[in-house]
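Predict structure. Chain length: 265.
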Amino acid sequence: MAPIPRILIVEDDDIICNLITTMLERRGYSVVGKISSGEEAIVRAAELEPDLVLMDISLAGQMDGVAAARYIFQLFQFPIVFLTALADDKLTERAKHSQPLGYILKPFTDKDLSTNVEMALYNHSIRKKYLDAYPVGEPKKLMAILDTILVMDTKGRIIFYNPYTVRFLDLPENQILMHHWRELMMIVNDQTGEEVPDPVPEVVKQMLVVSYEFNTAVVTKSGKSRKVGVTIRPVKDDNHELIGVFMHIKEKTLDQIKMAASKKV
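Prediction complete.
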């Protein structure tokens, strides 16, 4: 028996969201989540791993559905079907970057919805065989790894974090998403205590990888300091256009710290 398709709904109108849920469940689909903002949808998509994301284009919050859909598809390769009451050329052009498999205009019927969902699921089952590797790693591994993983937009604002990040920063989730990473922590030289200049502008401008492996610590907003290795690199979409910046913070083990200290003696 084939597994029941799992659908994530991103819609800020509760009435429409509940209507879509009813329509989908009546057709035998499973609604795994209902999200009202674009920025939250990116993190929850990686967490829930839906078979399809139904994304409203016009959303409340700091990120609209078009931007969120681009990140969700380009980072994690979850297929997108857009829901919208608008159909102008500019939105359509922007929407292409998420390679949507459907575009449903409101108001829609039960048949409109079910047909688009069914075709999108089928077409993605064919398409995913030809997709490139995940640009920041498989969602399941990102969510499980005991390192801090961040994806930022090109301005340095956090658009994705994994669960370990919350523990590392010791901050509630609503103080992480869409905040500039330097509001939450700073990278310092642990020998001099001097703050390292923000590497994100250089990564964006030069499209290069920046690494800090020696004499490096991260000091969080709460004042905790940890010896770490940090790697920052550009994230590109399938057209090789820059869409964000990836940061991987790996805490040093006690053995690594002792080994580094012995080399200084």
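Summary: The domain at 6-130 is CATH 3.40.50.2300 (Rossmann fold).
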